[in-house]
Specification:
seven-stranded mixed β-sheet, binds pyridoxal-5'-phosphate, Aspartate Aminotransferase, domain 2, 14 helices, 414 residues, Aspartate Aminotransferase, domain 1, alpha/beta
């Protein structure tokens, strides 16, 4: 793919067939990225070419099986670059984030004693809460909750030291909140948790399309994301420090490999999706233009994506204050845009979240409504039984014109 710098979403959009969709004679506006993004043609081609080539299960001594192994190794190398992992064995593929988290929680809970403690946060998607609540129930561990500030929906990391003690075994924390966009200072959380002897798992599903992930700089023990949130297929990808993946007992069948990453990869993987994962990482890297390594391209790409998305956020927030009855949850201070993704949970006075999403949907503007599985967030905001909020989520392929169009559409709602 040609050098796409300096950042401009318009030529990029040409790579995404789905973005050409029209509803009622107008180009559709995809503001549902936090629920799953669209994919570029290169991802579609990589996935279909897996089948066209002739696929097979892994580990056989013949052409199509070797091809499958090459596809898997390439995806591991791509995700190693995406996460900045130290070695390919630290990359584990699975069905999705939720399934990987359930596997990991079961393995970790075996190491806990009754009375051990774990910390979950109220800012998280339920896929990073319920697996841990259930694991705690199974093992007799005590669950502690880290709150967020309901005024701007930022995590109260200042309260973390009070929750940590010598019994804390795990802190599981979101990198960015899928409901309201707040970004967590994960590095600081890891420092605090490690000082108390706890390990840290990071849910980076919502963060991943919006910023650079560097597991070495974060020093987190585990981190999970899902490629369908960053222009790829429906596959989950777990990073774990090699020593931990090696020493923990994975639930697996007997002939499966005894060593990472294979010991964590249950059953047969979606190899066509792995082909798509590599293509998705390569697509993001291509935004960064020329550089000596793919990792360096990703660094450049994420810098540009972040700048564009902050500009989209600024445009959205400055327009939103002009719309009567529109309330934006989360960080609204334009000086703090670096601390949020361009994901906005909003309410419109006099209309339910469902009614707003439905009316916008009729005009070809795709937004989610409800709780989006951020059950604890909606509970804390007192909105769970009120039908939740409307979520307007931008990604790098969205334009300023789309920001203006959605705001204008909201002003016209009755
Ligand atoms: C922040 C966050 N975590 C976890 C998940 C669950 O991911 P998956 O669908 O891959 O299980 C989602 C999905 O929306 C999410 O947004």
């Amino acid at each position: 793919m040609k050098n796409l710098t300096p950042f401009d979403p318009v030529p990029l959009r040409a790579h995404f067939p789905a973005l050409q969709l029209e509803v009622g004679g107008e180009t559709a506006i995809y503001l549902d990225g936090p629920g799953g993004t669209q994919v570029p043609q290169s991802v579609i081609d990589a996935m279909s070419s897996y089948w066209q080539h002739g696929g097979s299960n892994s580990g056989g001594p013949f052409l199509t099986s070797r091809y499958t192994d090459d596809i898997t190794n390439a995806a591991r190398a791509a995700m190693m670059d995406f996460y900045n992992a130290r070695r390919p064995e630290e990359i584990v593929f699975g069905q999705n984030m939720t399934s990987l988290n359930f596997s990991l929680s079961r393995a970790l809970a075996r190491t806990w004693q009754p009375g051990d403690e774990i910390i979950v946060t109220r800012l998280d998607h339920d896929a990073n809460i319920s697996p841990w609540l259930l694991a705690a129930q199974d093992s007799g561990a005590v669950v502690r909750w880290l709150d967020f500030d309901p005024t701007d929906c930022t995590l109260r990391l200042d309260l973390l030291p009070d929750l940590l003690n010598e019994k804390t075994r795990l802190l599981t924390i979101t990198y960015a909140a899928n409901a309201v966009g707040s970004i967590t200072n994960v590095r600081r959380a890891v420092e605090l948790a490690h000082a108390a002897g706890a390990i840290v798992l990071v849910d980076s599903v919502h963060f991943a399309p919006h910023g650079l992930i560097d597991v070495q700089a974060l020093d987190c023990d585990f981190l999970i994301s899902s490629a369908y949130k960053y222009f790829g297929p429906h596959t989950g990808i777990l990073y774990g420090k090699y020593e931990l993946l090696d020493e923990l007992m994975a639930y697996k069948v007997r002939p499966a490999p005894a060593k990472p990453a294979g010991k964590w990869e249950t059953g047969t993987q979606s190899f066509e999706s792995l082909a798509g994962v590599t293509a998705a990482v390569d697509y993001i890297a291509s935004i960064g233009g020329k550089a000596s390594t793919r990792r360096e391209q990703l660094v450049q790409a994420m810098r540009q994506i972040k700048a564009h998305e902050m500009a989209l956020s600024q445009r959205f927030l400055s327009g939103a204050v002009q719309v009567p009855g529109l309330r934006v949850y989360g960080i609204t201070d334009v000086e703090q845009l670096a601390e949020r993704t361009p994901t906005f949970a909003v309410s419109v006075e006099g209309l339910s979240a469902e009614a707003v999403a439905t009316k916008l949907g009729e005009q070809g503007i795709f937004v989610w409504h409800g709780h989006y599985y951020a059950v604890a967030v909606m509970e804390r905001l007192g909105l769970l039984d009120e039908g939740g909020l409307v979520r307007i989520g931008f990604v790098h392929y969205n334009t300023f014109e789309e920001v203006d169009r959605v705001l204008h559409a909201i002003t016209q709602l009755k």
